[in-house]
Design goal:
The chain is built from twelve helices and twelve strands. It is of the alpha/beta class. It folds into two domains: 156 residues, Thiamin diphosphate (ThDP)-binding fold, Pyr/PP domains (Rossmann fold, 3-Layer(aba) Sandwich); 125 residues, Rossmann fold, CATH 3.40.50.920.
Length: 305
């Protein structure tokens, strides 16, 4: 499911939540009417056009007035064009704005690097008081939206190219990683759409006699320090995987924790200080970026050498 489709699916969820909470409002960046929310609550739906800074300013004002605003906006643009407003109007002022951001990572492959969101995790997790969520499949995205509504302060929910993970229905707990596969040779810590690829890589490794633990790091901030500590102490070899620059995102967050722990060996898999300039469909972009399942398996094997 594309991030856009996943975001549109939240219209039903938000409408259901709005039935119970009259303070919920939806503010959009000209990317759709988000039915059935807009149909049921036309006076609580605001489309401000392609104006991301204004979008966040309006949402922050609504939050300051006692509303619970959800924002729908494309990840590469809301995270960068409106960064100052998110930092100051939402973070500094502790306004509970919930940002749902599709088109993250490399999902916008055929639109080129202007539509890739590969810096957003690093930017958003730097803001004091910001919660950063990166669900792994469409159902978990819905659980993340529900959880975000209960959090005090601003929340960023990153949606990418999400495929359903069969049998995965674990309760969503902010700040606690989800164990997807148990293993003892190497730990693969993945986030967002990379979780599906990590699970596939785990299967490839298993066929080669390598036991891989896979953790779904659906919360980038607050990061699950205990899950990282357990992997570093019990396994010692950790691979992080993300559709993001290796600096600042999940890999950066895990590296910070491991540096403080002083144990374990880490390899970060993501974009290595470069833009992906090729224009291609999403599966081809993943392969070019070295973020598909075979590439992840190869990186995991390298930790065993």
């Amino acid at each position: 499911m594309l991030g856009f489709e996943c975001a549109f699916a939240q219209g039903e969820v938000l409408a259901e939540m709005a039935e119970r909470n009259p303070d919920i409002v939806l503010v959009s960046q000209d990317i759709g009417p988000f039915r059935p929310f807009s149909k049921r609550f036309p006076d609580r739906f605001f489309d401000v056009g392609i104006s991301e800074a204004n979008l966040i300013g309006i949402a922050a004002g609504l939050a300051h007035a006692g509303k619970l605003p959800f924002v729908m906006a494309m990840a590469p643009f809301v995270s960068m064009r409106a960064f100052e407003q998110i930092r100051t109007d939402c973070g500094y002022n502790r306004n509970s704005v919930k940002i749902i951001a599709p088109c993250s990572g490399l999902e916008g492959g055929y639109w080129g690097p202007t539509h890739h969101a590969v810096e957003d995790l690093g930017l958003l997790r730097m803001i004091p008081g910001m919660t950063v969520l990166c669900p792994a499949d469409p159902a978990e995205a819905t659980r993340a939206v529900r959880a975000a509504a209960e959090v005090e302060g601003p929340v960023y929910i990153r949606l990418g190219y999400l495929r359903p993970i069969q049998g995965y229905a674990e309760e969503f707990e902010i700040g606690r990683a989800a164990l997807m596969r148990e293993g003892s040779d190497v730990a693969i810590l993945a986030t967002g759409a990379s979780v599906v690829q990590a699970i596939a890589a785990c299967d490839l490794l298993g066929a080669q006699g390598i036991s891989a633990r896979v953790l779904n790091m659906h919360t980038i901030k607050p990061i699950d320090r205990e899950a990282i500590r357990a992997a570093a102490a019990g396994i010692g070899r950790i691979l992080t995987v993300e559709e993001h620059l290796v600096d600042g995102g999940l890999g950066g967050a895990v590296a910070e924790v491991m540096a403080e722990l002083g144990s374990g060996r880490l390899r970060r898999l993501g974009l290595e200080d470069e833009f992906i300039v090729e224009v291609a469909d999403y599966p081809d972009i993943l392969k070019l970026a070295g973020l598909d399942a075979p590439s992840i398996a190869a990186a995991a094997r390298s930790l065993l050498d």
